[in-house]
Amino acid sequence: MLSLIVFLPLAAAAVLVALPRIGDVVARWLWVAVTAVDLALVVALWLRYESPGSLGLAFEERAAWIPGVNSSYHVGVDGLSLPLVAMTAVIFLACAVYGLHERDRPRIQAALFLFLQSVSLGLFVSADLILFFVFFDLSIVAMYFVIAGWGHGDSGRSAMKFFLYTFLGSLALLVGFIGLYLAADPHTFDMVDLAEAAPLAQSPLAGGLVLAAILVGLAVKTPTVPFHTWLPPAHTDAPAVGSAVLAGVLLKMGTYGFVRIAMPMLPQAWQSWAWVVIVVGVVSVLYGALVALAQTNFKRMVAYTSVNHMGYIALAVGVAGLVAEDTTQARAVAVTGAVTQMVSHGLITGALFLLAGVLENRASTYDMDAYGGLAAPAPKFATLFAVGAFASLGLPAFSGFIAEFQIFTGSVAAAPVTAIALLGILVTAALFLRALQRIFTGETRGRSVGFADLRASEVWSVGPLLVLSLVIGVLPRPLLDVIEPAAGVVVDLVGR
Amino acid sequence: MSGPNGDIALWLLVLLPAAVGGVLAVSRRAGPVAAPVSLGTASVTAALSVVVALERPAVAVPFMAGADFALGVDGLAALVTPTVAVVTMLVLLFAAGEIREGRARFHGLMLLFASSAVLTVTATTLPTLLFAWELMGATSYALIGFWWREDHRVSSGLTAFVTTRTADLGLYVAAAAALAGGAGLALADLPEGSAGWRDVVAAGVLVAALGKAAQLPFSFWLSRAMEGPSPVSALLHSAAMVAMGGYLLLRTESLLAATGWAGPTAAWLGAATALVMGAVAVTQRDLKQLLAASTAAQLAFVVMAAGVGTVAGGAAHLVAHASTKALLFLAAGAWLTALGTKQLSGLSGVARRWRLVGWTASLGAVALAGVAPLSLWATKDAVLAEALKQSPWLYSAGVAASALSAAYAGKVLVVVWRLSPAHGEAAESQHDEELTGTRHVGVLEQAPLVVLAFGAVVLGGLALPPADALVARAVGEGRPHVAVPELVASAVLAVAVVVAVARWGVPEPRWGLRWLGLETAARAVVVRPTLAVAHALARFDDGVLDRAVTGMATGVLAAARGSARFDDRVLDRGVEATSTTSLRAAERAARADDSSLDGAVEWVATGMRRLGEVARRPQSGQLYQYYLQAVVVLATGVVLLVLVR
How confident is the model at residue B443, as a pLDDT? Predict the structure, then answer.
């Protein structure tokens, strides 16, 4: 079932590439249909999901691949990856619906996104380090083509910067993986075996070096300060659907790596270096929020808020490494919050980037000062934008609050000094409301005049994302029931 | 205990206005039906609130972080929930007459607010409380900035939201501290945490409550909030949202008492705010600004009540104030719509013009002044009597604050009943300065005023026998003590101050008009430095971090070009040089080949030729030379033969 979910989009992509006469309309609708079918399969998977035990995986599949280095095609899901798989499917469906109005080579774009969807899903379900790495790098390649091929502004340069920077990070990651492989006895790339063995537990120096390599690789992808400078230009020059996937899915590959690879396989090193991760997290939170506050380009502003939101995740997973007897519950809450934030940020920021694409499409600029009083000609846009902005600043009744409350409750309980990161939610509140005010309220002027309101494809791509965030915010138990056991397992594994 | 009916009523109480409000707020074509639908919902909600007040249900569902999403109605909530619900209904009735544009959005947002306010009142765990608390703030933002075409109103909403959110961070810290202290996240369990963590919880709750209740130093946001429509000011910024700040402190009074320092701190902060904000209110020239400052001052009494430990007195004051202040704000709204001004100088003698509004507003003002036997007189003294037991200084501060409230209420009374023609003409010139007045106050706007005026008169009974014992028992306190001398003294003081104000007027210094420059200070100390840091970090990000990365790339390119040049000029040239050297060696070898080897061969050949020429010489053709040659050869042969033998 998992392999079907992962490779169905790839098969559809191959079909689209192989039939150049297929026509734009058919191509677009095929894209929507395939992503919808994939989402249905994921939902069916979710309904049949039962939490596997510690170090277990559900819906496991294994096939021989590179026996010489003990690397197999090993896939499976647990409470950490299933929500991310579902989120990925939802975001790609939203992008497909948004793309129903794409005029520029829709067939190729659909094929490229379907390929990217396969790669993303594959990464989240992979249980082998080489498999993980292959999907990791393929995602970078695919996103390069998305930005370079369908972007605007200085897209060539931004795409190149994105590619080189994150690819360099992935090489550091590979070094870490090889370190883990060599340290394990017998040598293996299998994630489950490595998590069970925790090979470098006895050698702090080697463990620290391997963790450093892995952390650098993941920190570039997440991105955390100071490795984040590829993100703003990549977002500013990418097309709307590209940004949505970049922010919603690709960034999560970095944070997913923390909880899937770094924490279970290197518990001793993680405990020793927990404060480094915490400091990086807190700095990302505050730095990202403050720099976002100073922006006048809306998409760049949201890009920096992504740095801020990912900082909360880094903070929470760092705190999970502060092992002490009386903080177990707090740390489990923090990790649950971190995974919830991964899902929540994907939905909300994906929606915000799709909305930003409307600005580009109608008036070719993201500059907030070029607009004013936009709520008059575009009330639907104003409503969805306001909902997205409030969801992103962590208002209750949306998923962001569920995530951030748990992150803060867990982190501050375990490490009180991290309370300073609370200023992040204050600054994000100010910056989103200022953006809302500059663009939508006041007198209708500048590019707002004659601005066409949202089309059906735009409403039906952004709306469901925000509605899903609302549902999670009001009824979080279905999601938390999946995440909490897995978060508990991670905290146990780190505490070894 | 309550049965399933009570539970359903409690869930409906919160969910019904939320659902209806949510749908109304985003629908654009529901304008015509918005008012009837919202009034219907509000009426049902009010009825449900009475039901739950009687049934006292408690419900819970699992939520997050090991805590439940739990609601419960105890004695305190049973008092406050119907208050909020009924005032909401009356304000929506008023708004049905007043708000003409964007009705669906307005009524939807008001219902959403009502839902979150009721949820705040009935919340029994911290996650639930924080959930509702922040939603109140968001709806307040949307309602203050309701007329979004005017930028300054949206700015005011932003100021209000960000200021209260700053204070709300205290609740996040309190939640974390509650988890760490082992007490769990239920509000009733908070006093049981371990000592150090419990202090943090109390501090966090205190900060959040003070921010929401617009106490010092947060008071300036309430001044900005007056830019919203008058129904919004009447509901959110007098009766419900800011009152929730006081309510939170009443709800967590046992926690404040358990820490030892939080109670006195709250009491003194309340006293200080009551004094300072009372003074600010006295100096105001704008009716809504005066009422806003008065709200902060009156809620300070509720804060003081929580600090000194009288939940019954505080609750009674909160309820009575809700009715009184909502009445006054609605009256101000009616006058604003009718005359187009809310400046006191423009409202001179307005009570005579629309009699019903004038009389009900006057009743409200007299109640606000604390004149016996109206509501705020008795409830305020219930608080002050308890304060006297703790500290005479606290009591004196409270009495001074009461005198100030009599002063500003008296100011309003004097202005609205003024007969002087000179003032009347000056007032006329200020009419229509904010909007074009309709010169009309409708039935829908007058009906709620009557009900609220009734409340302003009788609700003082909650602090007087026999009802005060009931209230005390409901909130779990001992028998209240009726302090007759204090009651008489305050009654006399109130009347005296009102008369004095009527006779001599009040000063209006600039510091009061600007609300002590609190907002300017907040901008200078918090906003501007933050923006400066933000811009500096953005420049650092572009100029240093990004340039470092790009610099590395440029460096790598430069190294690549250098390597390319090295490759061409050194390595390749080396290879070329090798081939050139080989060619020269080959040429030398070729020359050596030509000159020496080949030369040797030529020399041999030349030698042979010479030998050949020499060998031809004996062939001279002369006979005697041949004979000589033959003799020589013979002789040589003989010699050889002899020698060999």
Answer: 87
